[in-house]
């Protein structure tokens, strides 16, 4: 398992709480797990958004999505479960 990745059991506990999942109203996210792992990587490594590795995509998109989830209280729910 990569250093900053979610374990499968952690992912199973939170995946149904996330915005953009298949079957919900709105746009379906390309890969919610990769996005959550990008945010965890950023905070665990203590790096600025612009230093996210390329495998996570454009850091501006990740940051914008992070901010939207933050305003909607999604992160509080996630960390309450984890």
- Helix segment tally: 4
How many runs of DSSP E, i.e. beta strands?
0
- The parts where pLDDT drops under 50 for at least 5 residues are none
Q: Calculate the terminal CA-CA distance, rounded to whole Å.
A: 17 Å
Order of helices and strands: HHHH
Strand content: under 5%
* Class computed from helices, strands and strand pairing: mainly alpha
- Cα gyration radius (Å): 12 Å
Main beta sheet: none
- General shape: globular
Count of structural domains: 1
Proportion of helical residues = 40-55%
- Average pLDDT over all residues: 85
How is this structure best described in words?
Helices cover 51% and strands 0% of the residues. The radius of gyration is 12 Å and the shape is globular. The protein has 4 helices and no strands. The chain is mainly alpha-helical and 82 residues long. The model has no long low-confidence stretch (mean pLDDT 85). It has one domain. The two termini are 17 Å apart.
What's this, in brief?
With 82 residues, the chain is mainly alpha-helical. 51% of the residues lie in helices and 0% in strands.
Give a quick set of tags describing it:
51% helix; 4 helices; 82 residues; mainly alpha; 0% strand
Secondary structure elements and their pairing?
Elements: H1 8-14, H2 32-45, H3 59-71, H4 74-81
């Amino acid at each position: 398992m990569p250093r900053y990745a979610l374990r499968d059991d952690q992912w199973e506990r939170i995946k149904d709480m996330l915005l953009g999942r298949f079957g919900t109203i709105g746009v379906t996210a390309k890969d919610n797990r990769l996005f959550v792992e990008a945010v965890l990587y950023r905070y665990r490594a203590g790096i600025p958004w612009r230093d996210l590795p390329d495998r996570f995509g454009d850091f501006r998109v990740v940051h914008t999505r992070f901010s939207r989830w933050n305003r909607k209280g999604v992160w509080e729910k996630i960390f309450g479960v984890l």
